[in-house]
Amino acid sequence: MAVLPRSLAGQAFALQAAVIMLVVMAGSALALFDAKRQGDEAARQQVTAIAVALADAPSTAEAIETGNAAPVLQPVTEAIRKSTGIAFITIMAPDRTRFTHTNPEQIGQKYIGTIEPALRGQTYTEVYTGTLGPSVRTIAPIRSERGQIIGLVAAGITLESLSARWRSQWLMIVGVAAGALALSFVGIWAIRRRVLHQTHGLAPDELRVMYDHHDAILHSVSEGLIVLDRNGVALVNDEARRLLALPAGPITRADLPEFLRGNDPGVRDEVRLTDDRVLVVNRSAVSASESEVVTIRDRTELQGALGELSSLQGFTDSLRAQAHESANKLHTVVTLVEMGRPDEAVKFATQELALSQQLVDRVSDAVSEPALVALLLGKTAEADERGIELTITEETHLPAEALLSPQEMVTVLGNLVDNAMDACDRDDPWVEVTVNQSDERLQIQVADSGPGMDPDTFARARQRGYSTKSDGGAGHQGLGLALVAQIVNRHGGTLSADVTYGSVVTVTIR
């Protein structure tokens, strides 16, 4: 039993070669058969035409009626026979007596063959074995002017001559078949090389296993994966559809978010925002196939956790700073006591403590969410260290059932306060914060002493990657207002900016 080659390219070559050989051989056999059939038919038509032409010629009937048939017609028939290449032309009387024959010795002898149909006025063709061997012959009647049958014409070609004619076409048919085989083998050899290059010599089973593994990995990985090529989107896995909210079925570039529609290979860990997610995008070019691989990681929950952690970190830093300051104040108090001035020591110790405790109590009473309390106190301490006057207004009030989650509140308020402290006027630095929820409406308003933003600048600031900081916003990656806008859009709220008593940014959620 023949064994197919191992590689897919080799198997394809072997199967194509077998099919091509079968087709060429069958075609050659059909060509030979058709050549024989057409040769036989052409010979029948030829002898019929010669017989009918001689029978209808007036000179033939005249020669028979005058009694000079043999000497007049023998030279004519031989000339015609030699020019046409047929085997014989015999003109005879109705009683079979030959007037002409290829062999002159047969003249006057009886014709061997069927003549009855011709005697009845029919032109008749048959295969018969005569004096020259088996032949295809046609017998046509010769009529006088009065319509009487006065003779017969038999024209024939031997089967041996027909075989010789047919065999002469073999060489051409075999040559064409050999040429077709050679050309086909060159073509399938080129196909084999291309398939071998594209499949790296892998066997069909190996390709199937590779595809199964590839398909399983694409559907199981926790990262979104998109393959872009010159024709559009070649591949999208399940996680990418989920993260980008893509529809089922084929995906085009128009279905992708705007930041993925263009060709931009080389991007590494770029943070992008959709309507409800924070994504980290990487894009790599595949030069061999002129395509691009895009990987997407979900950073939404991590971003919220980082915001909350940032607020807690700020609060921790403020506590550390206060602890350091408290140590200095404690040394001062101890020294005043040692100097014999206890009243002044008590007054000095309780003055700052009362102010700090008053701020903590007021914020804790106004805001029910501990994470937001920590954020506000931490930002207050940070502002104090930076020489910025941060005020939490008396209108601040947030019940326990807030319209935003603690993580969302930390993200919105933390980013707005950070932006305000970065943008405030350095000659008169102040920031004012108001958080108020009543009548099913949450309003977060942060004002600062900065120059504010015009509508175009504010619109750009809500896009990922934009920052008004002089350092390009490296610390925040230009995500501040973009993250705020994402949360506001998710809840159907509004985000606005204006310049009244300062630069004021307002978030309203209903």
UniProtKB/TrEMBL annotation:
GO terms for molecular function: ATP binding; phosphorelay sensor kinase activity. Its main location: membrane. Keywords: ATP-binding, Cell membrane, Kinase, Membrane, Nucleotide-binding, Phosphoprotein, Transferase, Transmembrane, Transmembrane helix, Two-component regulatory system. GO terms for cellular component: plasma membrane. Residues 321-510 form the Histidine kinase domain. SUPFAM superfamilies: ATPase domain of HSP90 chaperone/DNA topoisomerase II/histidine kinase, Sensory domain-like. It is found in: Cell membrane. Signal peptide: none annotated. The chain crosses the membrane at residues 12-33, 170-191. The keyword Membrane applies. Its EC number is 2.7.13.3. It is a multi-pass membrane protein. This is histidine kinase. It catalyses: ATP + protein L-histidine = ADP + protein N-phospho-L-histidine.
